Amino acid sequence: MLNSRAYWTVLLIVFIGLALAKELGARGAQLSCWSGGYAQNAWMAYCNSDRYGVYDTDAVWHHIEPDVAPSIQSAQVLTISDSHMQNALSLGGASEWFAERHYSVYLLGLPHAESEFGVRLLDNFKPHPDLVILDASPYFTGDVGWDEKAIFQNPQESRAEVAELKDFQARHQQFCNALAWACGHNFAYFRSRLDGHWIFPSPSPAFWIGRNSVPNDDHRFPTAEKVDELVPLYPKYLANAKRLVDKLNIPPRCIVITHVPADYELSGMASYIGKQLGLTVIQPQVSDLYTFDHAHLTPESSTHWTLAFLEQLEPVLHDCVAHSATVARVDPGK
């Protein structure tokens, strides 16, 4: 039988061992994040690990990534949205479409973002776009999302945490270059330094990314299955949309509003806000669209919707963006 001193010594050793195992497990979860985006001149926006989580929002707000501010400020075309439109345009090839036509664009969609954060982003970066694209989503709540609340509740702590994650990325990239087989277990996506689009891993049957990763085509939920229950809130959303639109200081016809399809039907909200504020409403009618999580379009549906949207957007671009002033963007990573 152990005496009291030996008992507490053993207990302390077990406790330290468990703590070390937990720490090693957490570090391992971080290090196993998919790392493929680094090679595409991008930074890790999100990793499915409690020790990493969402880097995207804080990194943008705090100017932790030095390419963000000049890219936003110089963009001729700017999107302001939550993840719904960011996901669709990124998966749908919008970045390549704009680049082929020599329009500088920045896709400023952020997870869980709401319109008050969009207003604050405009104050933060002071962009001068010729054309802005908004998503009704519903986005115009007049609030900030739960990811953004932490930024304003404790800005110093928020900045310190995101700076630590930036330092981690350099170590993670080196680790994955040396031990590629150890990376990829956890889903992650990246944000392009060039134009802000999200970069996702390709669906793979391999265990470490796997067919159950997001985004994928394994789950398919038809869009527009739920009726719009937010009609009574339209006046509130309109007032919040006007607050953001007034910050832009560009002709209303050069502000485009749309609704990226999901399982709820909100096309009426986009039309209502657009008509009341004199905005350009573009809502392509594309059949057989699906989401993978009831909210975000699958890669295939993203492509169908994005191409239809961009086809209708092109004449608005010609009207609002002076083609003589357009220049091809140069990738700062090359």
Characterise this structure.
The protein is of the alpha/beta class and about 325 residues long. The protein has one domain: Rossmann fold, CATH 3.40.50.1110. Helix content is about 45%, strand content about 10%. It is built from eleven helices and eleven strands. It has helices at about 5-30, 55-60, 70-75, 85-90, 95-100, 115-125, 145-155, 155-180, 235-250, 265-275, 300-320; strands spanning about 40-45, 55, 75-80, 105-110, 130-135, 190, 200, 220, 255-260, 280, 290. Strand 1 and strand 2 form a beta hairpin. Helix 4 crosses helix 11 (about 300-320) and helix 9 (about 235-250) packs across helix 10. Residues about 5-30 and about 325-334 have low confidence and may be disordered.
CATH architecture: 3-Layer(aba) Sandwich
**Rg, Å, rounded:** 22 Å
The count of strands amounts to: 11
CATH level-4 homologous superfamily: SGNH hydrolase
- Which structural class do you get from the secondary structure elements? alpha/beta
- Number of helices, counting only DSSP H or I runs of 4 residues or more: 11
Helical coverage, percent range: 40-55%
Q: Could you tell me the mean pLDDT? A: 85
- In one word, what is the shape? globular
Q: Could you state the order of secondary-structure elements as H and E?
A: HEEHHEHHEHEHHEEEHEHEEH
> What is the topology, as strand order, of the major beta sheet?
4-3-5-9-10
Beta-strand content estimate = 5-15%
- Can you identify the CATH class? Alpha Beta
Question: Could you describe the largest sheet, including whether it forms a barrel?
Answer: 5 strands, parallel
- Runs in which pLDDT lies below 50 for 5 or more consecutive residues are 6-29, 324-334
- CATH topological fold name: Rossmann fold
The number of distinct structural domains comes to: 1
| First-residue to last-residue Cα separation | 68 Å
